[in-house]
Specification:
The chain is α/β, with parallel strands linked by helices. The protein is built from 8 helices and 10 strands. It binds fructose -6-phosphate (F6R).
Length: about 240
């Protein structure tokens, strides 16, 4: 594993954007595996800046996102499709037809997961998968479990996640109860994994994930078994490594 320690969030975002840019420059039709959440926002902003300066061309790039809520329309401001549109896709020349996020409105979410697995296979796999990390070590919506779930699947959100998300919705009834997420196998098959972490509150889980035992109780710990992981974090998040 390669570790890049940045002084702060801004530098971390720039470093992570540099790594994604290298993929886009070296392989213009690369497949980027993307994540939502607060950590990669600065990285997307940096990519948009470089695109505006003429340094990046996304015209042949393909993307697959990690996850999406079941039941949310792509236009809902809490959907992950909306996040990707507003943070990246709407600001660069990526072909909308080349961007993939599970369809939150699919009538049969299980069938949608199977379709999504086929999309990833048809793209020839993922060149680089961006991952943030939850405080419990979750990656995508793969929460601590007894076993690793393999490919894209439907997850029931825990009561605590539903409660935590409630602040983003008009009422608790509107909070999605399920999500679709790439599984551990889909993630592990990416040719490179780019983990982004920021903030002191991530220091404990970064330590557990990368120096503790490999266990489905800490889903990110499986990344120790991946041959090409790049961890980019600010000093605070890496302080316990
Ligand atoms: C996002 C995702 C999540 C986040 C994780 C960290 O698509 O799947 O696993 O990466 O919850 O979120 P932040 O970056 O907000 O700390």
């Amino acid at each position: 594993m390669k570790i890049y320690a940045a002084n702060d969030y801004k530098q971390m975002s720039r470093q992570a954007a540099n790594i994604l840019s290298a993929h886009v420059i070296l392989k213009p039709d690369c497949v980027l595996g993307l994540a939502t959440g607060s950590t990669p926002i600065g990285m997307y902003k940096q990519l948009v800046d470089w695109y505006n300066k003429g340094d990046l061309d996304f015209s042949q790039v393909k993307s697959v996102n990690l996850d999406e809520y079941v039941g949310l329309a792509p236009t809902h401001d809490q959907s992950y499709r909306y996040f990707m549109q507003t943070n990246l896709f709407d600001h660069v020349n990526i072909d909308p037809a080349n961007t993939n996020v599970p369809n939150g409105l699919a009538e049969d979410p299980e069938a949608e997961c199977r379709r999504y697995n086929q999309v990833i296979r048809d793209l020839g796999g993922i060149d680089v998968q961006v991952l943030g990390m939850g405080h419990n070590g979750h990656i995508g919506f793969n929460e601590p479990e007894e076993a690793f779930e393999l490919e894209t699947h439907v997850v029931n959100l825990t009561e605590s996640t539903i409660r935590a998300n409630a602040r983003f919705f008009a009422s608790e009834d509107e909070v999605p109860k399920k999500a679709m997420t790439m599984g551990i196998k889909s993630i592990m098959q990416a040719r490179q994994i780019l983990v982004v972490v920021s903030g002191e509150d991530k220091a404990d889980i970064v330590k557990r994930a990368f120096t503790g035992p490999v266990t489905p109780n800490v889903p990110a710990s499986i990344l120790q078994m991946h041959p090409n992981v790049v961890l980019v974090g600010d000093k605070a998040a890496l302080s316990k490594l």
